Amino acid sequence: MKLYLSITIIVMLGLLTGCASSSAINDFFGIEMPPSEVNYFKIIGYTESSGISYQSTKNMNPDINAWAGLEGTNIRIKITNNTDEPLGINYNSDQYLLVNKDGKEFILNKGDRVDYNNLNPIEPNSSIELVLELPKDYWSRVGVKQNPDYMKDFTREQNTLTFEKEKIKDIQIKFGYTKTIILKPVTETKK
User: Fold this and answer.
1) Domain coordinates of the chain in residue numbers?
2) Do the Cβ atoms of 155 and 115 come closer than 8 Å?
3) pTM of the model
């Protein structure tokens, strides 16, 4: 119980001291963990007033955490480093995956290489925000059929297709071969 309370307080402090985002980033939450322990990480609840509460193991590190929000065809991710050491990131070796409930994995586009590498490192007690894009073949791979007339006039601004939170199992952030953050869906708890 003491560990549970400590984790809740740490996450709330991180939220209060972090940079403000232009929109709510509270669809997914995760912490750094060995991928083999993902089944032991459980989101217990979330409210605007008290923050996130979750269950974890001693091998997980809540000092490195992330929130993600769905924004149409993009995912906004805020990564927080509350450790005493910088967290290195690298365009070539980092990977952001969306895993749907069918087990299909989709690599999210990190955008411009220079912009991404300019965020390196994530300094101690700071955070960064990224906007990641769906891969171009996402809709065909999840079985969405488009009619030819729709595709003729297609532009990013006209695309009305969006992520469906209910179909996403998790989002994985892999920093090279050293650290992994796994984010799970957050459901707001009624008071």
Assistant:
1) 2-185
2) no
3) 0.76
